[in-house]
Design brief:
single chain, globular, about 75% helix, mainly alpha, 2 domains
């Protein structure tokens, strides 16, 4: 099994190394300097290999610290319950949710496809060795931060140390259940395609995690001890059953066949998305439009693809509305929660930059536009003319802003209402600024992603993303939005600055799009 793991690790590292070299070659200016023979350069391969290993080490820790910081540590300020107990409470219920959402073994990745299907490596040895490696990374990645954050809020040392092993136990229990379900139903689970039951379970866990402390109910250390002992026993039993399971090849072959998420020759990795998109297109011949020209073309596209474009936004809006209602109830029944909510709303407006970034659908919508329209239309010369490009760009911008506006209005209006109900503010203009700044953020991301799409058009005809520059801009956008979480600033100051910045950015971006999009909006090779 060790030999299989070493082979698989070398395979993964080679794949990442070549991906890094490819990404470097796609950067502006640099790609003109570096020749195609670059892949043969031993020196560069060593350099890329070192970067690959460093990224692997960083990946062990970076996700864990972000997770604990955002999902647990920052949420502690919302409640007046004992911080140590609340930390444990949040960690336990979020671990239940994460256990069913990410199993590691049932994640259909490219390296599994290459190793098990193409190279015919022993599926059991490959699956188990890499699964154990992921579990070790999980414990190693979590342990420093459960100790660090646990010490900051007064969690006993024994719990700080046992929390990562609690996560480990839950992962084993869930994976054992997946194997049991596979043997019973002969159908393997694909963690990239969660069922309604899984989403429902996650929703309940999140509600219990964040809702119970609002009414002063949390798990204490004694209850955690009982839960951990039970999880540990079931985890050990699960580990034995996982290790003794023999039919990994049949399970993996079924996942690969059903998910269709692997790149092979003509980008079969995107075929599942294409098939899903085709199922959602409404080919009703009665659809018509009273518009003309580019507006007519785009209006028909929106009507036929409305499920793809709006379904996620509608679901987001329902969740947002439920959260607002829950917050209103919490304010009415708990005075401490009311006071804390008011304090947070007055200075935590920067936090909502990250939230608006997360819920904005512009990236997915532009991908759908390419997959269901542009990847075919861009092969026609007339579709690449400045008049057509700019005409459709204008219509798409209106659509994107409209699509993202519903959740933005709910969040902006909900925050203003919660601020008023929780005690209000000395300056009534803050209600308006809070609402308008959220709308401005929504419009900003709509413009940002559409302009990125037109200026950097990252896809080839097979809908594979080929632009390293696009990925870099995406990464920088995430970093800036993440940084905003760390800032606390009064509504008036940050709100005004946000509105002014969004207006200026949108004007500059639209100017660049109108000037350069006719040259840059084309299929990549």
């Amino acid at each position: 099994m060790l030999k299989t793991f070493i082979t698989s690790f070398k395979l993964q590292n080679t794949y990442r190394t070549n991906s890094i070299i490819y990404s470097i070659k796609q950067l502006p200016l640099i790609k003109r300097i570096l020749p195609s023979s670059l892949y043969k350069s031993k020196g560069l391969k060593i350099f890329a290999g070192i970067i690959s290993i460093l990224l692997e080490i960083i990946n062990i820790f970076i996700g864990k610290i972000i997770y604990i910081t955002v999902m647990i540590f920052m949420a502690l300020s919302w409640y007046h319950t004992n911080q140590a107990d609340t930390f444990i409470h949040l960690f336990v219920f979020l671990t239940f949710a994460g256990g069913v959402l990410n199993t590691y073994m049932l994640n259909p990745t490219k390296d599994k496809y290459y190793a098990i299907i193409l190279m015919n490596i022993n599926a059991r040895e490959y699956g188990l060795s890499n699964y154990y490696y992921q579990l070790i990374k999980l414990v190693v990645g979590f342990l420093p931060f459960t100790i660090l954050f646990g010490m900051m809020v007064g969690v006993p040392l024994w719990i700080q140390i046992t929390l990562p092993f609690f996560v480990l136990a839950i992962k084993l229990i869930v994976m054992n259940y997946c194997i049991y379900d596979f043997k019973k139903t002969n159908k393997a689970s694909n963690e990239n395609l969660p069922t309604k039951f899984v989403w429902g379970f996650i929703g309940i866990c999140l509600l219990l995690a964040y809702g119970l402390p609002a009414i002063n109910i949390t798990l204490n250390q004694t209850i955690f001890l009982y839960i951990f002992i039970l999880a540990l026993i079931l985890g050990i039993v699960s580990l034995v059953k996982i290790h003794n399971f023999k039919d990994y090849r049949r399970m993996y072959k079924q996942i690969l066949t059903e998910s269709n998420v692997y790149v092979q020759e003509k980008a079969t990795g995107t075929q599942a998305m294409k098939d899903n998109s085709l199922r959602q297109i409404e080919l009703d011949k009665n659809y018509t439009s009273n518009k003309s020209g580019f507006a007519y073309f785009h209006d028909l596209f929106v009507k036929r693809h409305r499920k793809i474009l709006t379904t996620a936004v509608k679901k987001q809006s329902v969740v947002i509305l439920l959260i607002i209602i829950a917050m209103i109830i919490g304010i009415q029944i708990n005075n401490d929660f009311k006071v804390k909510t008011n304090e947070i709303l007055l200075v935590y407006l920067p936090y909502f930059v990250f939230i608006m970034y997360c819920i904005n659908r512009s990236s997915s919508v532009t991908q759908a536009m390419f997959m269901n329209c542009d990847h075919s239309m861009l092969t026609y010369r007339i579709y690449r003319t400045p008049k057509v490009i700019l005409g459709i760009f204008k219509e798409r911008l209106k659509t994107l802003i409209t699509i993202n506006l519903l959740p933005a209005v709910l969040i902006g209006g909900g925050l203003a209402l919660l601020l008023y109900l929780s005690g209000g503010t000395d300056n009534p203009i803050n209600y308006v600024i809070q609402f308008v700044s959220i709308i401005a953020m929504s419009i900003f991301f709509s413009v940002h992603y559409l302009v990125m799409y037109y200026l950097l058009q990252p896809y080839n005809v097979n809908t594979e993303m080929k632009s390293s520059t696009y990925k870099v801009v995406q990464g920088l956008t995430y970093i800036v939005c993440w940084y905003m979480i760390q800032i606390q600033m009064h509504i008036f100051s940050f709100g005004i600055a946000t509105i002014v910045f969004c207006i200026a950015y949108c004007l500059i971006s639209l100017f660049l799009a109108y000037k350069y999009a006719p040259k840059t909006f084309k299929l990549r090779v």
